[in-house]
Amino acid sequence: MLTVKEDNRTEAELIKEAIQVQDACNLSGVVFSFARSMQRLCDLGRSMPGYGTDWRNKHRVARLYASKIQSLCGDIKLHDFDMENLENS
Predict the structure, then answer these.
(1) Where are the alpha helices (DSSP H) in the chain?
(2) Residue 3 falls inside a structural domain
(3) Residue 75 dihedral angles phi and psi, to the nearest 5°
(4) Is there a domain that residue 6 lies in?
(5) What's the pLDDT tens digit per position in 49-82?
(6) With contact defined as beta carbons under 8 Å apart, do 7 and 36 qualify?
(7) Any domain includes 5
(8) What angle do CA 36, 6, 40 make, to 5 degrees?
């Protein structure tokens, strides 16, 4: 039987982990860690009135992870993803 461990990380611990992730080189590991951290941030926000989507989206944890993901993916240009370019690749 699979046992799920309860995530009790504090906001400070989430921030510390997001800073440590800046040295990572494995995109999938960063993304999975980001998802777990954002879930915990959502849980923390639910217990504090006024800490909704905007707070989470702009939180330093979200911004640190997003920056690392962008760094690992390289320079992203939106025109690289239009239908014409996708069909010709």
Answers:
(1) 11-20, 27-46, 53-58, 60-73, 83-87
(2) no
(3) -65, 125
(4) no
(5) 888 899 999 999 999 999 999 999 987 777 777 7
(6) yes
(7) no
(8) 35
What would the two tokens of residue 39 be?
A: 């879930």
11 or 49: which leads in pLDDT: 11
pLDDT at 4: 77
Rounded Cα–Cα distance for residues 14 and 2 (Å): 25
Q: Over the stretch 12-28, which tens digit does the pLDDT of each residue have?
A: 999 999 999 999 999 99
Q: 38 in helix, strand or coil?
A: helix
Length of the chain in residues, anyone? Answer: 89
**Whole-model pTM above 0.85?**
no
43 within some domain: yes
- Based on the structure, what is the number of domains in the chain? 1
Q: Find tokens 């926000």 and name the residue.
A: 45
Which tokens is 26 given?
């494995």
